[in-house]
Here is the input.
Amino acid sequence: MTNDSPTPGTLVSSRDRAWVVLPSDNDQIIRLRPLSGNEEQICGIYRPLLEQNLESLSSTHFPLPDPNYIQDHKAGKLLMQSAQLSLRSGAGPFRCFGRLSVSPHPYQLVPLLMALRLDPVRLLIADDVGIGKTIEAGLIVRELRDRAEINRFAVLCPPQLCDQWQKELKQKFNLDAVVIRSGTASKLERSLPSGDHHLFSYYRHLIISLDYVKSERRRASFLTHHPELVIVDEAHTCTQRSDYSTTQQRHRLVRDLADDENLHLLLLTATPHSGIETAFRSLLGLIKPEFEDFDLENLTESQRAHLAQHLIQRRRADVQDWITTTSFPERESLEKPYRLSPEYRKLFSTVYDFARGLVKTDSSQLSQAQQRGRYWSALAIIRCVMSSPAAAIATLKRQASKDLAVGNTSDVLDEQVAASYTYDPTDQEQAVDAPPTIVVEQGKQSYQEKDRRQLREFVRQAEQLQGKGDLKLERLYEIIEDLLPQGYQPIIWCRYISTANYLTEQLRQQFSKKKKKDSDLRIIGITGELSEDEREIRLDELITYPKRVLVATDCLSEGVNLQLYFNAVIHYDLPWNPNRLEQREGRIDRYGQTAQKVKCFLLYGQDNPVDGAVLDVLIRKAVNIHKTLGITVPVPLDSNDVSEAVFESLFEHAEQAQQLSLLELLDDQDTALLEVQKSWDRAVERERKNRSRFAQRSIKPEQVQAELEDSDRALGSNAQVENFVNTALERLNASLIKKRDSWRLPNIPACLVPVLGDRPRDITFTSPAPEGIEVIGRNHPLVETLAKTLLEEALESPENSVAARCGFTVTDLVNNPVFVLLLRGRYLIKQRRTSPLLAEECWLQGFTGVPSQAQWLTPEETETLFNQAKPVADYPRARKQQTLHRIIDRLEELTPSLEQFAHERAESISQSHQRVRSITKEGKVNVEPQLPLDILGVYILQPK
Here is the structure.
């Protein structure tokens, strides 16, 4: 090494301190990290300053332990654990493991292994709802980042998921990202330093709203400045759909990104196949253009194998017992019928007749646009009246009071807009939950004065039905009053904002009337009229209550994780799209749900023919498919077409609502409904085959298990983290108190107050955790700060440390003295595509005899002895210090053996890398030890 070009991994002295040299991606900067491994104190030296003698750099060595600061056996174990848990750049084949704050399940490593096979990474992760696609994508990003294969990445997602992504990346992967959407972009732009900087290129880690970036101007800017890796969440909203202009914008954005042949691209969706074959193929085409031309029903073996390299699609049954058992909740689907009150039945019947009249009367005299307008109006009116009296009032009141000229056809509503207000499309970026007023106005050409009088009568009747006379609402009361005492926390899903607000108010009134008002119960509504920040504030308030009821529209039904706080779902309004049903229930039925069973209630009108049609034709079949196949299979037709098939049949076959027979519709062999059923059955069979073909069974569990075990040994398992935290806090006079399913941390030590605060908290070391209990993993701030503090104090202020570099333990576990060295090795891992990487590991190496003729134990034997040794007697302190002095003074005699061990460890690390690379098909790596090894600690196990 020369002063101005030190090799990564070597030790240098600068600014009166010893440092480890780190790799640098800037030739003009020498990056340095303290010997303790504290990455918060990494600094850089500008090379020209060395040339001008304004900075100095010289070789140094790792300081040996001082026997004057000898402590007991627990203090020695604490140092070993601190050193192990402080490692961030582990030597194992998975670089990311040292920086994770989550323990991934083995099956979640499969997409990572697939990604490492690809250059560039082009992967569609289509695992079932709740399996953990965010974690799988985060592992890939973290691994590529730690391998220095990427420096920047972006997540494109619906705006309501931006904050969730930011939190997940920070908490689980230690990646700080900025959120860019309409509400944050201006502030971020103002914070850019002066000069030629761009928002999309300045920040390394981005989370960007698809709504924000899809416009023409921003799209061009992002395409110019995009990072090396892009994740597209809810990728099914970016398929090519000629009938949806906003979908086209999103598809064009991702397609143009994919045109960059060097871009790493991850597409995430639980519903890749929306039922439309061309849309699915367009999604595959984003991964590789040739996939768009594949005949998916008749793939050749070579096509299937090629596609399987880029597509993974697994059910829960595929991963539940993959190496370890993963607990998913049992989903219990229940139907809860209700009957309309006489007053509500009268309103529904007259509204149904009115709507049917819009569709059937004088249709030959109307243009096609007018006919479609009437049809949309009819559906919108029926649906809002079915939803709640409040929805009926919000939708019809404005129209009823208008005095519109007959025959005005200039304002023709876009079909996509009409669908978003009336149906439940799931391939749009955001659910529309506003009242369908604009859709009702589509039929204004036919609204005569008598029509408006009738609409005003509908509004009057609906106003009288609010609260009293609403048996659907009464049925909801019964369900909630049954759920709450059983410990269930329900989400009530509504179609419209007005219904959600109505329910929130009515429920609050109902539960406040009780003789003993429950102060632990809170009822809050969240709808699309609130901003993302307002939704988060309301949700944060709600989850502080032991008993809670969330009333929500579908603005929360896609992608948002609610399983930590809720365990029951009530569909107050039946979704008219089976995909929406799964999205709603998937908010709670996912990994991390601590309840063994989640309950899902379908609330429907027994004497409401539209509810009956939706239930029989769509919902019950979807529920049965999920029970038998374990996944949701979309209807293989456009969702609007399916709904139209149902409701056009209703309008065609019934003179009035009371005379409707749904069985009559389904028995008619010529109806569109029969084709829906047949097509759906074919889709179920197709999906069954696809799940088998793309479940990635080519990657065997045993190939992954060995590396996971090695990682736990090198970096520390959950059990070792728990032992370390308990022992360290005990030594800091802040002992944990054991509770039934957790630990209580009553007093926060001073070193933890800056990161944890001073409030007591309940913690656990296993995941998932019960609500209100914090999971403590390897990289949690509590563990990270404890390990860093204890290691730094042992190295720099041993007189004040609770962890010891020297120890002397009298034990009956040995017959001859055993001398244990705590070693830390550094290695340069050289690979073809990137600059060398620095890796580190710690291990115990023991010997008997004198240093010049040491008889070495294996690391496994040494670790077993060191961990199992228990003090049975003691020696005078002076004698212990004298013995340690003699050994430490002769450590130089061990140099040849220690160098040999370093080379053997390097070879073992190389073999571990090659085992993984035999799966990932990557090239070989060369592992070089950086000598000498650090001797962190010296401990003597002395026979009694």
Observations:
- The CA atoms of residues 402 and 452 lie 8 Å apart.
